[in-house]
């Protein structure tokens, strides 16, 4: 290279070019975990992993095998990250046998299961609470297809993750003991560049059914041979009002060639049906911000114009010294605006914690908009929030100590300790208190002890030292210079004519200040809370980033 192009170090631009080429070459040889496609040959085994069951009614997920489903002799747990554990995911193996491009009809999963009244009551309880079953195939969640109305495409549809465990009809509960699994795949012959060989999975659909099977023969593996999977006139499998029942679990597998590219296989899972409403919420927020800004600017300009006109009308030649020194209008409070409040230590702590949350949000949005928080990496969003919050401890210590020094505080050690422990302690206490109730219910959302230790290390081992480091640099910097020096004697504030009590003024200030901040973002907050409640994680980071920029 040096012989043909010269030494790249002699030209900075050429050096940057060679560095960029080296980075691109390194990126091409690096595969992000869970994002690299997997190629299958005809007949290759495809693993179906069970995940969890959850409901939007109870908000309590449970492990799949906490219910008496058919399970293998040896249940293997797959590695989960901290975010998956916080969501209640527990990925385990199953008895379902899937082979690439090998269709299966009416295959029995395991031996007939005879359930007691307690086990049937457990199934009935979960069915009435509208629990859904979640599976994973090739890192894609199994989903049910829902048709949506689009004028341009009559066959448009979207995916709803999971499938219902059962249904209630006529006051009785029926369990879905048969599933028809449709797996969409893409062949290498459909790829123009022939970058791979074999087949890739691009979609997993599940259609559940409740069938009361009947059988006559049993094979050598003690598995019944059934032919009633098509349903037809067969009654559904009831689980309510029975002292005991025998349930046969079965499944069909169908492979379907699809023109969906592997890179866009998540589009149906992440379709935003309310995209137009999102744009409306952003426009609404922008209009509200402009209106508030105009109102504040109008009030400020009118007040200042009135005061300046009064000052200009004063005849300095005829006025006495006493009249010149007398202050009116906004000048009455200029010596008290920047006076340190009574609890300035707590104020600086809250400002530091707010800067930490703000920095954490910015980092998460930037990383998400760059595509690193893809939904294929389950749990990575929650894990990134915890990690970035711990790393943002430097901002909390720096800005909290800077404000504390501006108010000429002397107990800087207590200030740094409060910044490091006040807000995280409140959150940790609430989290631990709620975790006790979740653990008492036996839910998989209860955080195990070892993961609590990891979260404690993120706090005490990373966040606290960074807060101390930020406080050190914040105290070493020059204090902020105030535009006006506060008077030594505070000015007496007369009582408000409409709000005579001090607590009424405090409540009114909180309501007006809170409403001014909440009104521009309430629609977007509604979407975020709805997606969390419905277990549909909010991946519209572009909308969130745009909302943050204009607000």
Question: What can you see in these coordinates?
Answer:
By secondary structure, the chain is α+β, with helices and mostly antiparallel strands. It has 14 helices and 19 strands. The strands form seven sheets. Strands 2, 3, 7, 8 and 11 form a five-stranded antiparallel β-sheet that branches. It has a four-stranded mixed β-sheet with strand order 5-19-14-15, with no helix packed on it. Strands 1-4 form a two-stranded antiparallel ribbon. A hairpin with a 2-residue loop joins strand 7 (132-137) and strand 8 (140-141). The model is unreliable at 1-10 and 16-34 (pLDDT under 50).
Mean pLDDT: 81
Number of helices: 14
User: Could you give the count of β-strands?
Assistant: 19
Distance between the termini: 50 Å
Beta-strand proportion: 15-25%
Structural class by helix and strand composition: alpha+beta
Rg computed from alpha carbons, rounded to a whole number of angstroms: 32 Å
Considering DSSP H and I runs of 4 or more, what fraction of the residues is helical? 40-55%
- Which residues form runs of ≥5 with pLDDT under 50? 1-10, 16-34
Oligomer: single chain
Shape assignment: elongated
Largest sheet, in brief, is:
5 strands, antiparallel
Outline of the structure:
With 551 residues, the protein is of the alpha+beta class.
């Amino acid at each position: 290279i040096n012989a043909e192009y010269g030494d790249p170090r002699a030209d900075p631009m050429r050096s940057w070019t060679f560095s960029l080429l080296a980075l691109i070459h390194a990126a091409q040889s690096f595969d992000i975990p869970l994002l690299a496609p997997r190629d299958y040959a005809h007949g290759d085994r495809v693993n179906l992993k069970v995940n969890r069951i959850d409901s939007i009614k109870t908000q309590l997920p449970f492990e799949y095998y906490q219910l008496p489903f058919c399970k293998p002799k040896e249940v293997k747990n797959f590695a989960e990250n901290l975010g998956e554990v916080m969501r209640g995911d527990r990925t385990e193996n199953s008895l379902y046998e899937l082979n690439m491009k090998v269709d299966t009809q009416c295959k029995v999963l395991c031996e007939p299961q005879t359930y007691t009244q307690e086990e049937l009551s457990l199934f009935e309880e979960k069915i009435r609470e509208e629990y859904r079953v979640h599976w994973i195939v090739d890192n894609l969640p199994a989903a049910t297809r829902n048709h949506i109305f689009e004028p341009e495409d009559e066959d448009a549809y979207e995916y709803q993750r999971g499938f219902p465990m059962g249904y209630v009809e006529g006051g009785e509960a029926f369990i879905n003991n048969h599933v028809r699994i449709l797996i969409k795949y893409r062949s290498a012959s459909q790829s123009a560049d022939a970058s791979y060989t074999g087949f890739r999975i691009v979609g997993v659909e599940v259609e559940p059914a409740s069938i009361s099977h009947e059988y006559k023969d049993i094979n050598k593996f003690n598995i019944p041979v059934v032919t009633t999977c098509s349903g037809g006139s067969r009654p559904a499998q009831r689980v309510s009002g029975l002292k005991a029942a025998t349930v046969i679990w079965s499944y069909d597998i169908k492979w379907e060639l699809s023109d969906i590219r592997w890179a866009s296989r998540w589009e149906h899972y992440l379709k935003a049906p309310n995209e137009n409403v999102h744009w409306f919420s952003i426009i609404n927020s922008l209009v509200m911000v402009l209106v508030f800004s105009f109102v504040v600017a109008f009030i400020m300009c009118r007040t200042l114009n009135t005061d300046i006109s009064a000052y200009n009308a004063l005849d300095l030649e005829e006025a006495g010294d006493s009249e010149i020194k007398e202050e009116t209008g906004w000048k009455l409070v200029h010596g008290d605006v920047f006076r340190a409040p009574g609890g300035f230590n707590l104020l600086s702590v809250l400002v530091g914690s707010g800067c930490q949350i703000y920095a954490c949000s910015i980092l998460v949005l930037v990383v998400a908009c760059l595509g690193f928080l893809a939904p294929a990496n389950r749990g990575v969003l929650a894990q990134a929030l915890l990690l970035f919050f711990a790393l943002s401890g430097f901002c909390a210590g720096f800005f909290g100590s800077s404000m504390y020094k501006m108010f000429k505080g002397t107990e800087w050690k207590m200030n740094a300790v409060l910044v490091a422990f006040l807000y995280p302690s409140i959150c940790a206490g609430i989290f631990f208190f709620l975790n006790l109730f979740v653990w008492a219910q036996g839910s998989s959302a209860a955080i195990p002890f070892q993961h609590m230790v990891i979260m404690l290390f993120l706090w005490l081992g990373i966040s606290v030292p960074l807060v101390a480091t930020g406080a050190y640099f914040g105290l070493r910097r020059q204090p902020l210079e105030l535009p006006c020096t506060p008077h030594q004697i505070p000015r007496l504030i007369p009582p408000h004519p409409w709000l005579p009590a001090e607590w009424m003024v405090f409540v009114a200030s909180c309501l007006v200040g809170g409403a001014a901040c909440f009104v521009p973002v309430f629609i977007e907050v509604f979407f975020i809370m709805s997606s969390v409640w419905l277990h549909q994680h909010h991946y519209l980071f572009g909308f969130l980033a745009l909302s943050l920029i204009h607000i």
